[in-house]
Amino acid sequence: MEYAFLQAGVQLNFLPVCICVFLIYFLVINHPFERALTKGFYPLVILLFLLIVIDNLDYYFIDSCNTGIFHKLVAMLGYDVRMLISASFIGIAIEHINHEKSRWIYIPCIINVLLILPCLFTKLVFDYEPGTCRIIRGPLAFVPHIIFALYILILLYYSTRIIFYNRISESIMLYICSTFCVLAVLVEMIYQLRGILVGVIAFNMMFYYMYLHIEHFKYDTLTSAFNKESFMADVEKFGKHYITALMSIDMNDLKIINDSKGHLEGDMAIKKTANVIQRNLISGSFLYRVGGDEFVIICTKVNYKLAKDLENKIKEELKKADIVCAVGSSEWKEGQTFEEVYKDADKAMYEDKRALKEGLNA
Fold first, then answer.
1. Are 264 and 286 in contact (CB under 8 A)?
2. What is the separation of C-alpha 136 from the centre of its chain, rounded to a whole number of angstroms?
3. End-to-end CA separation in angstroms for the chain
4. CATH superfamily for domain 228-357
5. What's the pTM value of the predicted model, to 2 decimals?
């Protein structure tokens, strides 16, 4: 029996363990460059290792027909760790989407712990049939499944929400992760199979980390706006069929701030400018930092009237924040090349810069 259990264990765990080892190695070598991202995935990998150990203990107790309280404790921990992994994974996704932490995501996880805790002393959640070790489900047996379904719905909500911000690739990635998790749970329940969900969790973690790792190189590290490489790639990607307008933005007096207050204050001014602009972007508009104090907004499938409204709104909000920027926009008209549109936006921006210097916009 022990040899058969060992053989089954190797078959079940070899791939998830390999993925964990690969992820740990990748996290270690990337930590100096992506501290925030790796910091979020370290606990996930540790939890996955813990889940692998717990699940194997559970399988061993089932195969040896152990129905004692220690087996119940292991089974309960298996449910809890699954919920904690779900909450942590979704927390990383929400933080990447909203740029803020979401502590509330752990509330269903805590509720799960409290509701299945009675399984140690009662039959409210589950029990094991003496002699066969067959699981007997109690009134609260499906609490973990309901909470897991709630987490899937939360993930699907955020996956759908980011579609409206043209983050289609990330949305598809999260939809795939959600779908595979649901299928894994159903397969395990219907066919009484082992290790499917753990394998799916491992793959989801690896693929989502690799996706976010690639995404990291699309953004400017100081402002979190897209960088110049992303700007050139998106111009080629969207082209004249999707891009309707361009907006050129240039900060005034950054050199004076750097010379009088230091480059750290200059960086803070750049970051503040980007934050104000980001908060006022509309659906279909994207901000890029293309130079030291130079930004460009690409408007896709946004009519020029809305683009001009956005330009005026950004000017107002920058003024309220005591930030002096020159802003100019141009419509991508029929027959124009991208270079011509960009040149027109720059021309409008320099006209605004001249007017600011002359005090016409005071």
1. no
2. 38
3. 85
4. Reverse transcriptase/Diguanylate cyclase domain (3.30.70.270)
5. 0.81
